[in-house]
Amino acid sequence: MGEPVACRDSERVSLLMSLSLDGPLAATDQQVLEGHLAACPACRAEWEAMKQISTLFEGAEMVGPRLGFATRVERRLAEKAKKRRRLFGGAAVLTGSLSLAAVTGLVAAVIVLGVVAGNWFDLLPDVEQGTNTVSQIASGVNLMGKGVTLFLTDFLRAFGLPMVIGVGIALALMLAVWIWLFVNRPGSYHHNGAA
Amino acid sequence: MDDERAWIEQALKGDQAAFGRLVQAYERPVYNLTYRLLHDAVEAEDAAQETFLRAYDKLATFQPERKFVNWLLSIASHYCIDCLRRRGRAPQLSLDGPLPPQWLASDTQRPDQAVSRKQQQEQIRQLLDMLEPAYRAAVVLRYWYDLSYEEIAEAMGTTESAIKSRLHRARRMLAGQLQAA
Questions:
Q1: Nearest-neighbour CA in chain B from A36: distance (Å)
Q2: A190, β-bridge pairs
Q3: Which terminus of chain A is more solvent-facing, meaning fewer CB atoms within 10 Å of its CB: N or C?
Q4: H or E element, residue B98
């Protein structure tokens, strides 16, 4: 006895077999299937094999996890919530510190730029040294302004605008991080709705 | 069903006990799916836990018109398919290679030797292992959960015709193996 001769309609017929295992076929399809199976040993063998596998799967029961599964899930949820809170706290401190540093830097830059600009446009009075306390201070500021001007003029010409843009972007990013942190702030994971 | 809705609403407010009840109610179907797909008790446990963690995170996106268990099964099947693909653990079915000898000891062929439950589980594992992940998931959802084509398609994020095709191809492959054994 050799193997059944391969069937040219096997693809179409096996689709009908598969569909019929999931539910009743339309009457015409059922007739086609039955007629073909009666005449084709190769497809009949495939049909028997499909039914055997189907029966095996249908008879299989569900397997469940080990006892205490729900408790283990709850523990993992609690750990995850704790981790998120820690991450949130760390991010808040980091971005808060960076924001403070950026604002401080910005204020310092504005003061320096103010002195430089004032000196540049010759707005600072040329005060004689040592006449009184006020004039001494004004003179000091003037000198400081001139010194800073000399030092920073070229630097600011080259990098002033990028610096202002950079600080602006940094602050915008910080703001975005804060908004993200606020939106995604960790919720509490607790019993019976009690915080 | 009403209980389920209430638990979901309470869980959305952060009530751990309510979410715990949902876990208890569905741990078995979720674990069964992860176990049938991964075939390793430790990995299945981890995948089932991960399914519930993801469900908790995404609970606000759950659409009440869907069955909650189907939603969980969808998360679990996607997770397991990703695991299988990442680990490259899905042996591709070769039509040249016959099934292992254990498969030959079937009820049909040897009625005098009843196949024990353990052997039956082993046969099922071997058969499912031969299918690539997406086919395997479709077969498990069809046979163990009796889901319709539409429900399987929804769970797997594909079309009904794709599911019909996957089931057809999976059955053909397995039948071919059985015939070759």
A1: 17
A2: B15
A3: N
A4: none
* Domains of chain B, each with CATH number or no CATH: 1-89 (1.10.1740.10), 91-181 (1.10.10.10)
Asked if A73's CB is within 8 angstroms of B52's CB, the reply is yes
pTM: 0.68
- What's the CA gap between A115 and A169, in Å, rounded? 24
Total H helices, total E strands in chain A: 5, 0
C-alpha B40/C-alpha B26 separation (Å) is 19
How far does the CA of residue B35 sit from the closest CA of chain A (Å)? 8
| Closest residue on chain B to A194 (Cα) | B15
Do A142 and A135 meet the contact criterion of CB atoms below 8 Å apart? Answer: no
Instruction: Identify which of B14, B86, B26, B88 has the alpha carbon closest to the alpha carbon of residue B52.
Output: B26
pLDDT digits (tens, 9 = 90+) for B108-144: 445 445 557 788 888 899 999 999 999 999 999 999 9
Query: Could you tell me how far CA A54 lies from the centroid of its own chain?
Result: 43
